[in-house]
Amino acid sequence: MEFLVRQENNLPQLPTDEAAQIKSAERTYAQELRDRGILKRLWRIPGTRTAVGWYEVEDATELHDVLSNLPTFPWQSITVEALATHPQEQVLAGSNPSKAAKE
Predict the structure, then answer these.
(1) What pLDDT score was predicted for residue 102?
(2) CA–CA separation, 80 and 53 (whole Å)
(3) CATH of the domain at 7
(4) Which domain covers residue 26, as residue numbers?
């Protein structure tokens, strides 16, 4: 299943070395998720401490496990939207582009 996840980072003011350690662990974990094919894309919302990610996992329970293991999870406000394939995408994925344009 695919999910769109909005993560607002509410990390409090911490000692510099502690904040750096948490951020480093977060980057390492995100790379692990990318390597495993779970985190497909990640965007920042300009001017905010919010990121939007496209995740692909077996089900919502796996997504919860993935998100709750984020080093910054205790300080995140997270919203999740399950994604379904739009009929237009199904047409494009199942045929060649020139055929889809004629239909």
Answers:
(1) 46
(2) 10
(3) 3.30.70.1060
(4) 2-85
